[in-house]
Amino acid sequence: MYSQIAENTVLTDHWRLLIDGRVECLICPRYCKLHEGQRGLCFVRQNSNEQLVLTSYGRSSGFAIDPIEKKPLNHFYPGSSVLSFGTAGCNLACKFCQNWDISKAREMDKLMSHAGPEAIARKAYELGCQSVAYTYNDPVIFHEYAIDTAIACRELGIKSVAVTAGYVCSEPRAEFYRVMDAANIDLKAFSEDFYHRLTGSHLAAVLDTLRYVYHETSVWLEITTLLIPGENDSEAELEALTQWLVEHLGPDVPLHFSAFHPDWKMRETPATPLATLLKARAIALKNGVRYAYIGNAHDKAADSTYCHQCGQLLIGRDWYVLSEWNLDEHGACRHCGTPCAGHFAERPGDWGAKRQAVRW
To answer: What is the value of pTM for the model shown?
Structure first.
């Protein structure tokens, strides 16, 4: 637990005091340098009396039970339920943000739910959720709150799932992933121009996080790329992205291509056609990605999981509802015995597609 400064405010790690009295935040590669009382771009980390504090500890933008496939995680206990929550703010400035009402919030009064780490873990346990997801906005910015919650969850046998853009510095990253069990990391594009122009961040830091999580931790990893027409959906970029993933992370990391819909500051950009998602999936499979999916669009064949050895259907999905299940008790193909990468129970979960609001 972190030192309490005031209600919903804790003293954080990962900062340093500069000689001019400003505080430099060392959580993410923005390295915000803050005068007294000033908040970082994320809006929730603040210079208070020449110390860095988190002002959203214990406060959430809301809780809901979701299917784990909605995170999206297709290879982490399919069919199970996950208690999802986030806070306000974000350390990226994505012009296409689809949760902008939360991530761009500038009024803390919008955060109506109050719950400490132990209460969240206990609620997940009582509701029968197999995991808790730190989502809706990026858990990088509520680092201390997420870590304390993950520790409390682990004590009750509840797993922790991070849904993040992966834009984080190395020391807090190691601290964070030490208590996570699974992560879906956004790889928003495969060009520095896109990252700089449309997110206000940099590609290299995200690639470094992907390599770190896959090679240096036991965290189950899946990746999502939101395809935006005319911005990151060219065949050349998709070839480069998928080839990089196979070369640096191997063939078994599931990759989700998700459909963009007009939002926030890109309302004039058209929605992603289904054909674009299917093209991207085909390129990924061609380049050796064994598990490629689409999201925010309906195509049962492209949502389902197949054995990479014999091609048989392993897990059928119709949106978030599981249909066929052809994995044995060890998570291997019932037809040829080839293991499917991931974490699987002996039987699939039966949560289905429903979303259930949770109130304290």
So the answer is: 0.96
